[in-house]
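Hey, weird one. I pasted the Helix-turn-helix domain-containing protein sequence into the form twice and got a warning about non-standard characters only the second time. First submission, copied straight from the form history:
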Amino acid sequence: MKVLPILHIEQFEAENATVEFYSNDLATHLKNNEAIVHKSHKHDFYLCVLFLKGSGAHEIDFTSYPIKEGSLFFLKPGQTHSWNFDSPAEGYIFFHTQSFFELSISDVKVNQFPFYYSYKNPPSLNLSPVELQKIASRFDEINVEYNINVVYKKQKLASLINLIYIDLSRIYTVYDIAENSLSTTYLKILSDLERAIEVFYKTEKQAHFYADKLNITTKHLNRVTKSTLGKTTTELIQEHILLEAKRLIVHSGNSLSHVSELLGYEDYAYFSRIFKTKAKMTPLEFRKRYL
């Protein structure tokens, strides 16, 4: 079974590395790590990348996003992504662990920012020239701080990340209305639900199971998912299963019947029907089309 690589911060070594944080200009990052970053992979950290130049496509969890000047992307731990450039890319990139941020910035959780609080929220922004100038200066300040040895370096880096996430949250207008109306309780429930689905999706595919795990009613859980993402709990479960199915179909090298079994479906024909309903093609058609 082929395993999709999971990259760790310590793989991007630097003499001044903090182990839990990394920053670089994008061109240098891509050149230094060309052996690992261009193939499909995952991370165990949060990643933020800004493009000042370049073109191509950035595929995140089987959705392709265009790369152009002002493109900005956010990735949460566990997401699959890869690059495909048509012209040389320039910009900035940084990533960090959850603990690096949350142990330095009190009373702020990284998942509270709208682009991180759910896998279902768009992982990208297209910045206007004015926005790009401001945000690029923030990225540059982070990169400069990372590459010098001074006291309170970790604290300042965390503060700069917090500032840039606040600025980007204000630009992330797609969810402005939702964010203003959502309570922290709803966001906590949504986060707990997504983690529970990640753990139990192979064996548990019913909404009531997850409601029981979260000690709330199925009706209230559906109210939370509809308010935050506009989808039912069942739809979220099915979407996660579909994503995991695509990952296994493309990256695992397993037979399609074995993929079905790994996802908790003993009857491949039934799994294939469910997959086709959601993906608009059979698992075999998806594998052939993607590869």
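That's the output from the first submission. The warning seems to come from a hidden character in my clipboard, not from the data itself. The CA atoms of residues 7 and 36 lie 8 Å apart.
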